[in-house]
Amino acid sequence: MSLAGLCRRGWAWAPALLLALLALWSYYAYVVELCLVTLTNSLEKVAYLTVFHVIFVLFVWAYWKSTFTPPQQPDKKFHMSYADKERYENEERPEGQRQILAEMARKLPVSTRTGSGAIRFCDRCQLIKPDRCHHCSICAMCVLKMDHHCPWVNNCIGFSNYKFFLLFLAYTLLYCMFIAATVFKYFLKYWTGELSGGRSKFHVLFLLIVSVMFFVTLTFLFGYHCWLVSQNRSTLEAFSAPVFPNGPDKNGFNLGVGKNIRQVFGEKKRLWFFPVVSSQGDGHFFPMRTLSEARNPLLANEEQWEEDDGVDDNHHDYHHSPSLSVEIDT
């Protein structure tokens, strides 16, 4: 890798590193400067430290998982085989290339289209895009159910880590709210001079200011993502509705609030609040609100996919239709 590439990669970690340093400072300021130095009531000190550490562990755990969980890429069945790639590259006629890609798409469970109604194909990754999959130019890969690329975790948020990202936002909000609520009384005491100044005063004052600032900012972001989950949309789909064979439909994946939540967090409610894998499916297949066998007579290919891929009965609602045209993503 060139020096410029190394510099870009290092610079990309700057926001995440800043957030990590801020979290470390907040830990020191709260535990040492507030609880160990400022507080005098032993019972209050133990209660604050106990609750703080529970929230802090959940916050760091979710942040770690959001940052270091790799974005999941499409299965090899969506990639061009060596023979198809050779045929595609040797075919000089655009019509012939489109026919090769159309033959590939007929074997795959894809339902969404481009705005012009064409099959979604990524020329950079050489694959037919699964439903809700998009190419991330920063990660240089196609990401299953891509939501957005987040600079604060230096990672692409998609199917593999969207639950972790939501929990990261939730526990960051809870972390800031707890700090602000417990620090406020001592902020006033330092401000009015009831407590003597010194190093602790500086840390306590800034703890409140920073926690309130982040709390207000993240409230809107977390609220927005809660709305997205309730509607079963990604950030990209909220800005541009997915296109189906019958046209755009912003509610195409909306199954109702309860089912939408379970699709992200899973069936086991005891796992909802922990950053562990529990989301439904594998990121390639998504049930659709308006799609049924009665309205889609082209489901014969689904049986062929299941025989080839070994898809279990849990995915019987994930339908597809063959492609009639192809548009290349460049």
From TrEMBL:
<feature type="region of interest" description="Disordered">
    <location>
        <begin position="304"/>
        <end position="330"/>
    </location>
</feature>
<dbReference type="InterPro" id="IPR001594">
    <property type="entry name" value="Palmitoyltrfase_DHHC"/>
</dbReference>
<feature type="transmembrane region" description="Helical">
    <location>
        <begin position="204"/>
        <end position="224"/>
    </location>
</feature>
<dbReference type="GO" id="GO:0016188">
    <property type="term" value="P:synaptic vesicle maturation"/>
</dbReference>
<keyword id="KW-0808">Transferase</keyword>
<feature type="transmembrane region" description="Helical">
    <location>
        <begin position="12"/>
        <end position="31"/>
    </location>
</feature>
<keyword id="KW-0472">Membrane</keyword>
<dbReference type="InterPro" id="IPR039859">
    <property type="entry name" value="PFA4/ZDH16/20/ERF2-like"/>
</dbReference>
<dbReference type="GO" id="GO:0019706">
    <property type="term" value="F:protein-cysteine S-palmitoyltransferase activity"/>
</dbReference>
<protein>
    <recommendedName>
        <fullName>Palmitoyltransferase</fullName>
        <ecNumber>2.3.1.225</ecNumber>
    </recommendedName>
</protein>
<comment type="similarity">
    <text>Belongs to the DHHC palmitoyltransferase family.</text>
</comment>
<dbReference type="Pfam" id="PF01529">
    <property type="entry name" value="DHHC"/>
</dbReference>
<dbReference type="GO" id="GO:0005794">
    <property type="term" value="C:Golgi apparatus"/>
</dbReference>
<feature type="transmembrane region" description="Helical">
    <location>
        <begin position="46"/>
        <end position="64"/>
    </location>
</feature>
<dbReference type="GO" id="GO:0140450">
    <property type="term" value="P:protein targeting to Golgi apparatus"/>
</dbReference>
<dbReference type="GO" id="GO:0006612">
    <property type="term" value="P:protein targeting to membrane"/>
</dbReference>
<feature type="domain" description="Palmitoyltransferase DHHC">
    <location>
        <begin position="120"/>
        <end position="239"/>
    </location>
</feature>
<keyword id="KW-1133">Transmembrane helix</keyword>
<keyword id="KW-0812">Transmembrane</keyword>
<feature type="transmembrane region" description="Helical">
    <location>
        <begin position="164"/>
        <end position="184"/>
    </location>
</feature>
<dbReference type="GO" id="GO:0005783">
    <property type="term" value="C:endoplasmic reticulum"/>
</dbReference>
<dbReference type="GO" id="GO:0072657">
    <property type="term" value="P:protein localization to membrane"/>
</dbReference>
<dbReference type="GO" id="GO:0016020">
    <property type="term" value="C:membrane"/>
</dbReference>
<keyword id="KW-0012">Acyltransferase</keyword>
